[in-house]
Amino acid sequence: MRQNLILVGIALCLAFGAAAQEIENNQGVVTGNVQTLWQSYSEDPLIGAIVPPEKTGLNSFGNLIYTQGGFSAGMRYESYLSAVLGFPGRFKGSGIGYRFARYTDETGKVDFTIGNFYEQFGSGIVLRAYEERALGIDNALDGIRIILRPVDGIEVKALYGKQRLDFDSRLINGPGTVRAIDGTIDVNNLFAQAGGLDWKTKWTIGASFVSKFQAGGTISKDSLLLQLPGNIGAWSYRLDAMRGGWSAGVEYAGKINDPSADNGYTYRNGEAILMNLGYTRRGLGVSINAKTVDNMSFRSDRDVLLFDLPINYIPAITQQHTYNLAATLYPYATVISGESSASAEVFYTIPKGTKLGGKYGTNVSLNFAAANGLDTTHLSGADELVYGFERNSWGFGPSKFVRDFNVQISRKESKKFKWKYTFFNLEFNTLATPVTTTFKGIVYADIHVLETQIKTRQRESLRTEFQALFTEQDKGDWATVLAEYTWSPHWFASVIDQYNFGNPSEDARVHYLYGAVGRIDGPHRLSIGYGKRREGIFCIGGVCRAVPASNGFEINFSSSF
Questions:
Q1: Number of C-beta neighbours around residue 322 at 10 A
Q2: Around Cβ 480, how many Cβ atoms within 10 Å?
Q3: In this structure, is residue 191 part of a structural domain?
Q4: pLDDT digits (tens, 9 = 90+) for 339-350
Q5: How far apart (Å, rounded) are the C-alpha atoms in residues 118 and 124?
Q6: Are the CB atoms for 316 and 146 separated by under 8 Å?
Q7: Which of 51, 73, 97 is the last residue of a domain?
Q8: How many CB atoms lie within 10 A of CB 273?
Q9: Using one digit for the tens of pLDDT, what is the confidence trace for 136-155?
Q10: Cα–Cα dist 370/343, whole Å
């Protein structure tokens, strides 16, 4: 604790003293940003909206960073008074939640950080420390990181620290310690420095090793008394290649037995393989991805769940949708226990001046993604208690998790009008990803979206979205209408209405109407909204959190400098 206070004091002195130094010596730069989200709550029995004791919530933070040459230091001050519903409720109070000091020498060969930092090795399958504030996720590491670049083409990273777990007027770290090393070699650059051949194919190879320590113990399973390991190691190897319009990559990861709350405290080893192949040229793009992940949940505390203390990140194979109905009703995220999945995507631009392309050209994209459970054999007796199951292959198992097919056509008709149509066909297993409490099984849904944008006059435009979801399962059919008017470059106003018109219960056919107005002035943005928000799932990058129903005002302000 004392070391933390010393580090914070150094960062504060450097940052706040920098403003005067910049004026006098024209040296050093102070940058930062602030964001505030305030929400009020009103009781609404029709949608299940509740009112917390405080009747309002506030999430706010501000970053302040001082940079001079190769040195930088900064901090983030956070306030949760109280936390907005849907964010971790244990986040409370005000204080410093992130602080660091970093130095990079003039040659760029040595890069040193103490305090908090974010980091990712490869795809993140063995290590990803990151922040996603909209989801309430922040697993920043707190310790030391060293990056070495001894020669062009070689980079080595080493780190040692604990992860952020909680916030109660100060940063609270989890109990486990994370130790990691990663190496990346740009083969072409390395050989070029040595006077080698100038290959047309660009090769990059990498390897990572990550371990965590948490004091061990014992667990009892029926008549078995099992020892919990204290040190857990995970590793990965990766290879990427590029040539012309082609790109390809593969990454393999493994992890030793890691009994935890995620896997029912079983002792199977973990494995994962991720592969991608892509091709692009003017007017055409093709991408194919495949992934199998088995028992790769990796946390610095074996007893926590959900968003707490993940060391790694398991990328989602499905496309991350942005339209309201597709993004919030049945969004798919990776099943943490394991899955086999694949996806393919094609982009094509029909040339302008043709009958189908029109005056400005027409863009067409198709995407298909599928995910199943693992191909496994369940064990019996003591083996089942200790290992759970045995995986037979890297292929698909019989349990369907999701099928997601979508096609999008976008076209500009004139300088004042353009449109975009998207069709989604979903098969979604709510047993694998429990996004609803009213239906258990596979939801079959079709979604149609028409988006238009009209320039009504100079520097003014109207954007609309008309969405409809049709399904015979769960809560039935939905519709969403959105209209957003912009007076560029400063003002905007929007209204959105989500309506469950096909709900079997007529009392549940509620209009979720929400309106907002706002102003943008350079790096400053203010919006004020009021209305109903539906209970559901909010996702970013394949990571999701549950959002409770709410009814009330919302003020959002952000600024950077």
A1: 9
A2: 22
A3: no
A4: 999 999 999 999
A5: 12
A6: no
A7: 97
A8: 18
A9: 889 999 999 999 999 999 99
A10: 6
Q: Which residues pair with 96 in a beta bridge?
A: 77
Number of H helices, E strands in the chain: 4, 33
Is 304 within a domain?
no
Residue 222 is predicted with a pLDDT of 83
- pLDDT score, position 469: 98
At 363-410, the pLDDT tens digits run: 999 999 999 999 999 898 888 889 989 999 999 999 999 999 999 999
Please tell me the distance from the alpha carbon of residue 350 to that of residue 365, in angstroms, as a whole number: 11
Domain-located, residue 170? no
Choice between 438 and 89, residue whose per-residue pLDDT is larger: 438
Cis (ω within 30 of 0) for the bond into 504?
no
Instruction: Give the C-alpha separation, 294 to 317, whole Å.
Output: 15
Cβ atoms of 47 and 535 closer than 8 Å: yes
How do strand 362-378 and strand 338-350 relate by DSSP bridges? antiparallel
pLDDT higher than 70, residue 20 = no
Q: Rounded to a whole number, what is the distance in angstroms from the first to the last CA of the chain?
A: 31
Q: Which of 97, 121, 149 is the last residue of a domain?
A: 97
Tell me the pTM. Answer: 0.88
- Give me the helices (H) in 26-72, please: none
Tokens standing for 361? Answer: 């050209």
Tens digits of residue pLDDT in 195-230: 666 688 999 999 999 999 999 888 888 878 889 999
What span, in angstroms and rounded, lies between the C-alpha atoms of 155 and 108? 11
| Bridge partner residues of 424 (DSSP) | 406, 447
Angle (CA) 520 523 529, round 5°:
40
8 Å CB contact between 241 and 248 = yes
Cβ within 8 Å of residue 285, ≥6 positions away = 278, 279, 345, 346, 347, 348
- Asked if residue 555 has pLDDT above 90, the reply is yes
Residue 342, Cβ neighbours under 10 Å: how many? 17
Q: What is the pLDDT of residues 28-46, one digit of tens each?
A: 999 999 999 999 999 998 8
Q: Which residue has the tokens 């992934």?
A: 291
Pair 238, 205: CB distance under 8 Å: yes
Give a yes or no: residue 117 inside a domain.
no
CA Rg value for the chain: 26
User: Distance (Å, rounded) from C-alpha 173 to C-alpha 8?
Assistant: 16
Beta-carbon contacts of residue 302 (< 8 Å; ≥ 6 apart): 214, 228, 258, 259, 260, 261, 265
Domain count of the fold of the chain: 2
CATH number for the domain that contains residue 430: 2.40.160
| Measured distance CA(289)–CA(345) in Å, rounded | 9
> What per-residue string of b and e applies to 548-560 under the rule 16 or more CB within 10 Å gives b?
ebbbbebbbbebe
The token duo for 352 is 């302008």
Which residues constitute the domain of residue 43?
8-97
Which residues lie across from 157 on neighbouring strands? 147, 182
Q: Residue 19 has which token pair?
A: 């403003």
In the numeric block, which tokens belong to residue 89?
Answer: 């409720």
Q: From residue 439, how far is each of 258, 419, 431, 542 by CA, in Å?
A: 33, 35, 9, 22
More confident residue, 8 or 305: 305
Judge contact between 259 and 219, C-beta under 8 A.
Answer: yes
Q: Where are the beta strands (DSSP E) in 175-315?
A: 177-186, 202-213, 217-221, 224-228, 231-243, 246-255, 270-281, 284-294
Which residue has tokens 């300088």? 415
